Amino acid sequence: MSLVSELKRRNVFRVALAYLAVAWLLIQVAETTFPLFGLPDSAARLVVVVLGIGLIPALIFSWVFELTPDGIKKESEIDRSQSITAATGKSIDRIVMLVLAVALVYFAFDKFVLSEVRVESARQEGLSQGRVEFYGDKSIAVLPFVDMSIGHDQEYMSDGIAEELLNLLAQIPELRVISRSSSFSFKTANIDIPSIAEKLNVAYILEGSVRKSGNRIRITSQLVEARSDTHLWSETYERELDDIFAIQDEIAETVVGKLEVMLLAEPPKVRETDPEAYALFLQARHLHENPSTESFHKALETYQAALAIDEKYVPAWVWLAALYDDMAHSLGIPYEEVGRLARGAIQRALAIDPDDAMALGMSAIIVREWDHDLAFAAAQMQRGVSLDPNNPVLLRWAGILMLALGQYDDAIRVNEFLFERDPVGVISKINLSAAYLHAARFEDSIEVSKMLLTARPDSGIGRFLLALAYLHTGDMELALQQTEQRGNSVRLTAVAAIAFHGLGRLDEFESTLTELREWYDSDGPTIANRIALVHAFTGDIDAAFEWLERASRDGVLSLSPDDADFVNLHDDPRWDALMEKAGFSKERLDAIKINVNLPK
Question: Domains, the chain, ranges and CATH?
Fold first, then answer.
């Protein structure tokens, strides 16, 4: 008998085929599952090598031995007439067919399920790598520090220290620092560091804790490399409260060093004050960041208490002015009275330090709001952003002022930049949606407003921006849906009136418009702008100009020459006359510009 015939009889070829089929299947399983357990590529290569080496013993075994009903025996000891190699061969054939069937199922699963997962994974990896290449690894988020005090009553201190560190790092142009609203949104979330970093698109996380007891404070700070969840640095500082500013400076300098950031200027320093005044300031900021009638009034008292200790502490004067501005828009306090208080606070700040960037920026907001001097406001804002070009709060204020000046493209550029640094926050979405609205990019505004409402379904300003964008696209039904829970919101009530008119529901339109007029009589002049908006949208041009004139006389007119909300009025000669009278003429605004050099 020839060698080939004998190999066939002893099922050597069948064993080889079966071995290769099973080995291939095992290799595929290894390639798929090993990464899930964090095993390196070398582990899969080892499987291939072992299986390759194992082929030779398997072939030798099939030549020398035979599987019989009595067990494994040497082929030479078996009577040829009693051999069952034919039956064994059929069993091996069935094994091969089974393995091939499993392979077919695997191929189908790989093509229609795993391949899509791999494509998406590769896409995400490519996006992540692209972002890393664009930003480098110099990106960081500062999480709120944990209050470890015995009574857990020092949250304002732990939050405040984390925010101060964030502000220090944000002043470094070479770093991309995620804003407070996004970083602090994970305060109560049960989520690991790598997941937070992925959501915020950063390479590093700074976290820590604060424990205050009497005049002693212990701050623990940790810098984490997010991709590997590796602690690069950890330090505990336990000192007198008087040293709190030095501690913050040390932490910021250490972080910069660990990230190997090449500074082009001296690292920023915390502005020092009396430790007790500082503690009160942090407490006031904590109250200010959680808006309600009660918290605003407590914040007011606490800012004033801090200033009673150190009347030259500029940040307290700046944020006191900002609080007055917020109270004017949120609490319905008499408009001119709050304006007088806001002016007084910011003037005190600038008298102490004429070159404080935040004071200059808030001065611009107040001058624009109450004095309507856009030229002076723009000059103040320009000085502020030139002194501190990486400050996200200043940039946000600059974006607001740019909209008033008709710099829509610049405002969009600034707000898109801020949105990248505030990916899960609310304020950045509000301002970006508003910028798109002013520029008549209504579909973009709708998209961002929907993102905002997904994150904060209770956002009244989000509902208003979305509803207003729907009005501009002519979708009255969708606009009206956003006003269903409008309550006493003047903005949403104005939108509802416009939508009722557009849908032909004129009785409801008249009753809603009457409601707005009654609010104007009882609550103050700022509502005149909303009533004018209703008349402009519904085509009552004369009434629209009448209410805009009232707003102008009352000192609350808020427009720009190309305002998309009043496009129906732009061709009327009275529009240019009104703009000229209010100091908003296109020629005048074209001569006023804010130039912002965004960090690369």
Answer: 3-130 (no CATH), 139-270 (3.40.50.10070)
